[in-house]
Write a structure and sequence with these properties.
The chain is built from 8 helices and no strands. By secondary structure, it is mainly alpha-helical. The protein folds into 2 domains: 4-90; 94-185, no CATH class. Helix 1 (16-28) packs antiparallel against helix 2, helix 2 crosses helix 3 (59-70) and helix 6 packs across helix 7 (153-163). The protein is elongated and about 85 Å long. Residues 186-206 have a biased composition (Low complexity). InterPro entries: DUF4290. Residues 184-220 are annotated as: Disordered. This is Methionyl-tRNA formyltransferase.
């Protein structure tokens, strides 16, 4: 019986033992032409075993890199791509820099900062004023959700001015009542629609009452 500890080490276990054995067999072939032919066949087989790689960019290049890794960097074939060195594979990826939000205003989120930049780019006019009011309203919602307390409009105006580096200023507006009126009107419309539906249902029930009264009179 042959144990796994006695077999060749799997350099990339996701490809399995069969492909590893094929690579070892390719390395033992006497001529370069035979090795090239078998290497191409192994690349096709690797692509069939990992079809998800075909959705990635330059997937053929990745398969050739994987073939060289499976061969433990010891394979004499003609590759259409340069083989990676051991130093390149051992190199650690660069540290990813996460976006930095403005100090104590992290709860506003990155989307608010993007909207602020968009508003700054717009020319002065109704569109810019409408976008600024939308930003202020969303800032107020985010503040209330995160801090779980009511915030006054002047605080939002001050935060908006600081986040925009004094380029957006709502201090000339008394409050954000426009958005509240909008939501109130919507709620009133919904209530009116519900009342109309209820009144319609009551009207539907009235003929049934009349039939009941008429039947009662006939019985008498």
């Amino acid at each position: 019986m042959e144990y796994n500890t006695q077999k060749t080490q799997l350099h990339m276990p996701e490809y399995g033992r069969i492909i590893q054995q094929l690579v070892e067999r390719c390395k033992e072939l006497p001529t370069k032409e035979e090795r090239n032919e078998m290497a191409m066949a192994i690349i096709d087989f690797m692509g069939q075993r990992n079809p998800q790689l075909r959705d990635e960019e330059n997937y053929k290049h990745k398969l050739w890199d994987h073939l060289f890794i499976l061969a433990n960097h010891d394979l004499d074939v003609d590759s259409p791509y340069p083989f990676p060195t051991m130093e390149q594979l051992a190199e650690k990826p660069k540290r990813m820099e996460y976006p930095k939000l403005q100090g104590d205003f992290k709860f506003y989120g990155k989307s608010i900062l993007q909207l602020i930049e968009k508003a700054i780019e717009l020319e002065t006019g109704d569109e810019k004023e409408a976008l600024i009011e939308v930003i202020a309203n969303n800032m107020k919602k985010s503040y209330n959700v995160y801090n779980k307390e009511h915030v006054t409009d002047d605080v939002i105006f001050r935060h908006l001015k600081e986040l925009s580096e004094n380029r957006l200023d709502l201090t000339g507006i008394d409050s954000l009542e426009k958005s509240k009126i909008y939501y109130t009107s919507n709620n009133n419309n919904r209530n009116n629609n519900n009342n109309n539906r209820n009144s319609g249902n009551n009207n539907k029930n009235q003929p049934n009452k009349r039939r009941h009264n008429n039947n009662h009179k006939n019985r008498k």
